[in-house]
Amino acid sequence: MATYGYARVSTRPQTEGDSLEVQARMIRGRCAQDGQELDHLYVERGVSGARPLDDRPEGRGLIAALKPGDTVIASKLDRMFRSASDALDILERLKSQRVHLVLLDLGGDVTGAGVASLIFSILAAVAQFERERIADRVREMKEHQKQSGRYRGGKPPFGFVVNEHGMLEPLAEQQGALALIVKRAAKGDSLRRIQAALLDTFDIRLSHVAVGRIVAEAKIRRLGSAGAAA
């Protein structure tokens, strides 16, 4: 059975409590307290905490080295994990491998049934609640944009521009070309014939793929207007 430490320092200036020296000292102190020998300290240098543990070079190495009965020690949850939900996912995997995880800022072994495990579970529940609230806010924002007629993002369709109020506004220099595309498409002209007509009439060069996309967007807007009128 081996004992491993994990420390992470990002590229931004570290606070005193997050420095590599402090993290290493805390991990070795815990090993001495428990009468364990630190077999290896995995140090993640210059890696953002936004990346999941198993997407970091040293994190992958740590996970690959673990065997049943091993112990992992880290000074803080945020040094090792991107979020509480990320930590919960890794925790379940460690439990299935019968590996102990000690997070010193939570009080100890979070794989057991003590206070540290309870705190960990509360943090995970908070993370899940926050994810659901974010999803709710996104849905509410999209519904508001839809009802107010605001454009919901992405490149504006051909013939339009997004104004300062977030609304689609006709772009005068492209409206004639748009009308030609819609008219020719309604007559059944091929995309390549429409492409040629655009070049001849407006000196606008578009691929036949782009012409097809414009035709599709125009149909969607027309259907949307019909639905709103109904």
Textual characterization of the structure:
The protein is of the alpha/beta class and 230 residues long. The protein has 2 domains: 3-127, Rossmann fold, CATH 3.40.50.1390; 148-229. The chain has helices at residues 20-34, 57-65, 77-80, 84-96, 115-148, 172-187, 191-202, 208-229, and strands spanning 3-9, 40-45, 71-74, 100-103, 108-109, 160-162, 168-170. The model has no long low-confidence stretch (mean pLDDT 81).
In the residues, how many domains can be counted?
2
- The total of helices stands at 8
Largest sheet: 5 strands, mixed
| Side-by-side strand order of the widest sheet | 2-1-3-4-5
* Approximate strand percentage: 5-15%
Please tell me how large the radius of gyration is: 29 Å
CATH superfamily of the largest domain: Resolvase, N-terminal catalytic domain
Classify the helix fraction into a percent range. 40-55%
Span from first to last CA? 70 Å
On the 0 to 100 scale, the average pLDDT is 81
Envelope shape: elongated
- Which structural category fits the helices and strands? alpha/beta
Number of strands: 7
Known CATH architecture of the largest domain: 3-Layer(aba) Sandwich
The CATH topology label of the largest domain is: Rossmann fold
